[in-house]
Amino acid sequence: MADSVGIQQGSPAVGAAGLVPAAPGAAGTEGSGAAGGSARIAAKKAQLRSSPRPKKLEKLGVYSSCKAEGACKCNGWKSQNPPPTPPQTDQQSNTVNLQEPCRSCSHTLGDHVTHLENVSEEEMNRLLGIVLDVEYLYTCVHKEEDADTKQVYFSLFKLLRKSILQMGKPMLEAQESPPFEKPSIEQGVNNFVQYKFSHLPSKERQTIMELAKMFLNQINYWQLETPSQRRQRVPSDDVVGYKVNYTRWLCYCNVPQFCDSLPRYETTQIFGRTLLRSVFTVMRKQLLEQARQEKDKLPPEKRTLILTHFPKFLSMLEEEVYSHSSPIWSQDFLVGATGGQIPVHTVISAPPVARPIYYSTSPMSVDQSTCGSVSPARKPASVLESNPVGEKRKASEPLHHEENKRPRVVGDIPMDLINEVMATISDPATIPETSLLSAHSARDEAARLEERRGVIEFHVIGNSLNQKPNKRILMWLVGLQNVFSHQLPRMPKEYITRLVFDPKHKTLSLIKDGRVIGGICFRMFPSQGFTEIVFCAVTSNEQVKGYGTHLMNHLKEYHIKHEILNFLTYADEYAIGYFKKQGFSKDIKVPKAKYVGYIKDYEGATLMGCELNPSIPYTEFSVIIKKQKEIIKKLIERKQAQIRKVYPGLSCFKDGVRQIPIESIPGIRETGWKPAGKGKELKDPDQLYSTLKTILQHVKNHQNAWPFMEPVKKTEAPGYYQVIRFPMDLKTMSERLKSRYYTTRKLFMADMQRIFTNCREYNAPESEYYKCANILEKFFYTKIKEAGLIEK
């Protein structure tokens, strides 16, 4: 027989967020719960189960309903509805015997246990375990201060009491039963490891598996913040949805750790991406902070794993957690042959630390409603990485097991060669990084490394008139006002204060050691398609460290996520150089009608603009460039190695041969030499114009020329101009011909050939466009030959 009770959806759990698993009612204090709480309960149960049978009956009698004649309705001493304050005498009564009269009815306690006379020892021990869980929850109900949490404990208390009365198994009654989301967190992390690291050697892959197991176990023992705490920290969050997951977590994962009469599930097995998203940012920050604080306690072999590899692992996972297009959360994700599932073992700890590495996570008082946090770091290039990309938005994905159906052509370098070269390049994290003092290091390299290590953070913050003031946000805004006032002495302090605290303005703040050291104040105009940068400064003693560049890169990423691709700012004479380095210019791309009347005007300043490219992950751009340079370097080295090859000399001239074709010289083609197309070069400009005009007209009149008559429209092929960098069409060629651009036949032929090459690069071979390009190309060369411009 199974007993059930309704659990109100959305009631929260106990204790402060993120502490080690605290026993319910222990207020989340570290060390007071966890192993200590469950161990004490287990010891009490073992002691009670070893007692004589009469003692067991006495214990059960005070919780069992009366079976005396006369249809007594007494349910025992312990009421299902506890009084406001716990009666200590009842709670700790050890002098009960079966001959005593029941305090709720006139019958003896023996009448309450007549139904247990023939019950097996195993069943009695099970019921005794429920009794101790009831007493423990009884204490929790009275110690817990959070009203919602108290309600959940009370519901569980009534469920267990009912199970004792009816001798059934406790069963939670809810709209849904576990698992609540698919794929689960555990499966998602398994998919992540397979997706990103299946190509690694076995030793490095084993390191990744260790990190994954460590992460999963941290989630299983993570104490979540209550919905009321979360409401204060993130007012704009979906509190209702969070409360639902929170109640489920409390009932199925947290309380059963200590009340083992309830069925227990691992958090990572019954929850999915939704819960992970709600805890990941705070959890990641607190894990890394705790790791830094305890680094001296770690042995050398674990120090590298936890301090170096774990932050990189979390940064890469963070991108997949928050990305809308990550494949690891698809139920159709296929695990490759080399991928195995990650078993969840006990928490991976680093001896000689006395306890597992739990990281406390008292909730940050960061107002996420007005501060869409852009930090922690984006996915860094590392030994743990297969594809360095930008922040949580997706840049182009690597070619993995779902390869493109056709190879991409990049210039005249075969893709196979590029892939072969990339395989020979050591991962950036396994080789010494470019010295930060080197002339070849990127401006933001030092700042990026500091962010990756958690030394600095970036948060978009702003004041709000509609929400409860957040102390930390207000302190940061005051800090930003001070930085701007000191670094921009010619700007009135009152004006700076007004804009920094203006609810319409936001500021990307740079935080180091808990204090503000820089920021960019801006105002977004989504309807006009641009953002105005108002102030930009870094405190003087933190300059020349790449913070300014990294700040601007984060701001670019933030705006790309919000689909605003233009910056405008008035730069004074001292700031023009900085903005030029960040991609700003005096050539304003935004139409004047869009910004006049919106942007603030400053005397003696220069209006500058910057157009963002949504395909560029700006915070990792220098890393990508560094890798591209490495690829080019390897390609050059390969080419040079081929050129340096010594070929046998020409001996044909000794035999009387007077001349040979150039292409027959050994090694000449390996140098990159190609035979020039032979044909008659028309020196008369008018004659050349007339000939080319005739050929172009024939091509335009061809029945297969229709796809190439006009430039490709973005609405018809949305991603065309991201793939094709140098588009060409017959209309453009006609305009060029009319303007006398084609001074030689080669220029004309190159543009025409580009039309066909672009078409074949963008379209699939089976498409109609691809076939039209092939047919029209043959026709074109036929006409070129007929005109005598190349040999037949």
Written overview of the protein:
The protein has 792 residues and is α/β, with parallel strands linked by helices. Among the domains are: 34-80 and 97-166, no CATH class; 185-322, no CATH class; 444-615, 3-Layer(aba) Sandwich (Aminopeptidase), CATH 3.40.630.30; 685-787, Histone Acetyltransferase, Chain A. It has 25 helices and eight strands. The protein has helices at residues 34-49, 53-61, 88-91, 121-143, 147-166, 185-197, 202-220, 227-233, 239-254, 267-270, 273-293, 300-322, 415-424, 445-452, 471-487, 493-500, 547-561, 576-581, 592-595, 621-643, 685-701, 720-723, 730-738, 745-762, 768-786, and strands at 2-6, 169-173, 456-461, 506-512, 515-525, 530-538, 566-571, 606-611. It has a six-stranded mixed β-sheet, sandwiched between helices. A hairpin with a 4-residue loop joins strand 5 (515-525) and strand 6. Helix 1 (34-49) packs antiparallel against helix 4 (121-143), helix 2 crosses helix 4 (121-143) and helix 7 (202-220) packs across helix 12. The chain is elongated and about 125 Å long. Residues 1-39, 370-404 are annotated as: Disordered. Residues 465-613 form the N-acetyltransferase domain. Residues 700-770 form the Bromo domain. One of its GO terms (biological process) is bone morphogenesis. Acetyl-CoA binds at residues 536-538, 543-549, 574-577.
